[in-house]
Amino acid sequence: MIYRIRHLTEYEYQHPVSLCYNLAHLQPRNTSYQNCLSSKLQISPMPAYSRKRKDYFGNNIVHFSIEVPHRKLSVEITSDIRIDEGRASPELNLDLGSTCAQALEALKTNQTKSTLVAREFVLDSPMIKAMDALRDYAAPSFTPDRPLLSAARDLTHRIFTDFTYDPAFTTVATPLSDVLEHRRGVCQDFAHLAIGCLRALGYPARYVSGYLETLPPPGQVKMVGSDASHAWFSLYSPEEGWFEFDPTNDNMPAEQHITTAWGRDYSDVAPLRGVLFDGGKPQAPRVAVDVQRLEA
């Protein structure tokens, strides 16, 4: 499947901004199941400095600065992405493979490079801290003899069932403890919750940012800009690799999920962040996302 992703972010300021420095995680990365065929980034006003590079996790990032007074900042990226069929199968048998107990033991003893690298995703990160409440919530799914992937799928389903999707309840800075207490949030919160649960039990888990193709009701035309960025999580199983789960939609990501970046949590892969001088009271950005299917 080939998709065209258009992601537009616009900021308008009360007063002219004299100088700003920015970091963008917007260009989708290449993975074993995904290939970025092309990507075009447009920034207005024209940056005085712009540099592309890879970050610590292998994500594509752009540093740029704007050094002329401006009241509006526009950042738009258009990318064509090929997603391989069979990325995830609904018929995947999750009752096979390492058990929860076997996976924990392998994480301690396995010296392969992939396992050693994965271990860092058990540690606390800026937005996800170890809590007994997270371990207690996750524990019923992860009995010692249960296959690890089956347990993770069960946790995904429980979060989908127990928590309410509520965009009005949280912001990007809402503590995970509040999400757990009130059982409300959005995709970012549910990904953080699942990651916190897994890490509390000793399993490596990372945050994945990207997009999800949404389709209009039958007979209706899809509205331009109606899509949104999305988030889910990935779990590492020694000897088996990384497996992705989406607690917001109670599934395993497949062809309709497009990956932009991954890291320890949202703070590692925020689409756009920066520092600006002047500008007055901060204004919420206007974000428009289109996920267009080009061909099957």
If you had to describe this structure to a student in words, what would you say it looks like?
It is a single chain. The protein has 296 residues and is of the alpha+beta class. The protein folds into two domains: 2-84 and 269-295, Immunoglobulin-like (Sandwich), CATH 2.60.40.2250; 100-268, C8orf32 fold (Roll), CATH 3.10.620.30. It has seven helices and 13 strands. It has helices spanning 100-109, 113-118, 132-138, 148-162, 176-182, 187-201, 266-269, and strands at 2-24, 34-44, 49-54, 60-66, 70-83, 164-165, 184-185, 205-212, 229-237, 241-245, 257-263, 272-278, 286-295. Strands 1, 2, 3, 4, 5, 12 and 13 form a seven-stranded antiparallel beta sheet that branches. Strand 6 (164-165), helix 5 (176-182) and strand 7 form a beta-alpha-beta unit. Helix 3 packs across helix 6 (187-201) and helix 4 packs across helix 6 (187-201).
Please sum up the structure shown.
By secondary structure, this protein is of the alpha+beta class. 22% of the residues lie in helices and 38% in strands. The chain has helices spanning 100-109, 113-118, 132-138, 148-162, 176-182, 187-201, 266-269; strands at residues 2-24, 34-44, 49-54, 60-66, 70-83, 164-165, 184-185, 205-212, 229-237, 241-245, 257-263, 272-278, 286-295.
